[in-house]
Design a protein that fits this description.
31% helix, five-stranded parallel β-sheet, alpha/beta, 17% strand, globular, 26 strands
Length: 730
Amino acid sequence: MSFRLLVAAAAARRVGTAPRTHRHPALAARRGFVFTAPRAEEAVPQHGGQTLVEKIAQRHAVGLGAGEAVRSGDFIAIRPRHVMTHDNTGAVIPKFRSIGATRLADAQQPVFALDHDIQNTSAKNMAKYHGIEQFAQTHGSRFYPAGRGIAHQVLVEEGLAWPGSMVVGSDSHSNMYGGVGCLGTPVVRTDAAAIWATAQTWWQAPPVARVELRGALPPGVVGKDVIVALCALFSHDEVLNHAVEFVGAGAHALPIEDRLAISNMTTEWGALAGLFAVDDVTLRWYESCAARPRATVSADAVAALRASVEAEPSRWIADRDAAYAKHLWLDLESLTPHVSGPDSVKVATPLAALERRRVSINKAYIVSCVNSRAKDLREAADVIRAVQNARPNSPVRAADGVAWYVAAASSQVMADAQASGDWQVLVDAGAKTLPPGCGPCIGLGVGLLEDGEVGISATNRNYKGRMGSKKAHTYLSSPAVVAASAIQGFICSPATAVSGAIDSAAADTRSVRFGIENAAPSPRAGASSVGASAAAASDAISGFPTSLAGRLVFLPADNLNTDGIYPGKYTYQDDITREQMKAIVMENYDPEFSRLVQPDDVVVAGANFGTGSSREQAATALLAAGVRLVVCESASETFKRNAVNNGLLVLESPRLVQWLRKRFQSPDAAPTIVSGLDAHVGLVAGKIQLTDSSGTSVYDGDLPRIGKAAQEIIVAGGLENWVRARMAAQ
């Protein structure tokens, strides 16, 4: 599906009696204001009911016609309840100022939470943190300092990611808010600056996949196993750039902590959101939060939430006749503990099979926003207790040669774990404690993987180089499996840690039952635009080049993630120059890329390009290297958003990629192939031609056509400049 830009298409009537909010003038746009001209095949059929994603998006849509309903595919202006930025606030502030803004449009909308590089106590980082705090104080916005916890966990604990609302964050794991019935989705740094200035941004309501969880989880199987299995079982981009709604008896039986873990890692599954409906489990969890000493959630707000759910149940669930792009299902009763990897979330192995391989480990981690809540720490501590009961005469410690790291998701979680005794159990077993924050998960601070090491981690990403050396290997699992593996020194189950031996005869060989139904047909690959909306060469605006040409550089890998494009260890160094970015682009994928690439090269890549984090530098580093156009089989919507916001074009052409794979297929193919072909691209006409060294045409094909909206952004040099010009003109 072609990527579009800014506000248009369908509209929504505000739910309730709140005063009508008008679209900010800087975001005003006419109907049909799109990134690429629409294809005829992309028409969205009209239907009666709405999905839950559509309903929540409608509540936050602004300045649109009364009586209309938000549908998947619609481009709307949204006013999210909150926008979260973390350490990257330091990079958003100059963007905010550069667009000419002097005050926040809504001081209560932004939330600032420092969590990524909190182990870095250098004068430079402390100055950055101080500047962020001062900015928050000046504008009267919420600020959570280093040590309070990982931003996503803090927003849930503080009642800011609230059920039934829409909250965006300048972080790819903003999907996590869906675990409490809040539509959470990532935006990028430039979007965050625009929201600070206008309170609004643009959003395309994504296609929605209905994922039915059937049955109940067996003992010892948790939410992490569910999402690890889903990422591997549906590993061919089935939910790429979709929102996912989890339904079924199995979904309703899951505790909130498991829902948060599942929603969190829908990011790695390729989705833009992962949403559970509010039910009695949700309400009882919030009631317990409100009953805590020094509660951060209002009892009155929770009572009002329950009253609304009970009085207006249809407001909190999808309509019976809602239209979904596809229907996937997973039988939870057939699921066993799974381990992801190594080095990919699209590969998972049943734990019973993997432990027979006795994969030795050097490091173990229970950290990150996916699996460091009180329930997770308790389950890890219970493994230690069970092993200690089985070996009453010897203290239980991490195996020789294994370094084990533990960090709570927040200061509140840490206090709870200390009060329960779980924290001390882990410390006594040799766990090295880290402050509540991201740390090793993002490749920052102490405890990173070194060359040749193997790690088992309860984090959400195991991309090469993510947690340290790109010559290391990382597996992902539940916290209980991490604890068991740390004790034994190899990846194993809690039962094996307790008994001290693998019981091969007892290995569970059940097959996981899953399926996909009612998949909507996807648009024809490489189809050209037709009809009244299609762009013609004469439609180019002043200053926009109708064509470009350059060498074709082919990156044959699928799932080339943002850590591969721009390593996480550089992400929060805000003073890196363009020359430095050029030198490190693709460092974790192919260190030779920066030497091989030349200005104006056309980069062609595989499927799911730019998956992973929402870091802006994955796009700007390519621009620094002189790349103006990336053509790929498919791309992460968040990466595409980052790209166009910064003036980089990203177009999809599965047919071209398949042709290049056949031409350059070889077991010894380099990760970066300078093809010897020149690409001639008609950006407005939607055409690409490849010629060889003699000038002979060897390939002709179609590309999505560039519409006038994208042309305006590209000519302006990115969304930041575009918004500044629009604001100055008001």
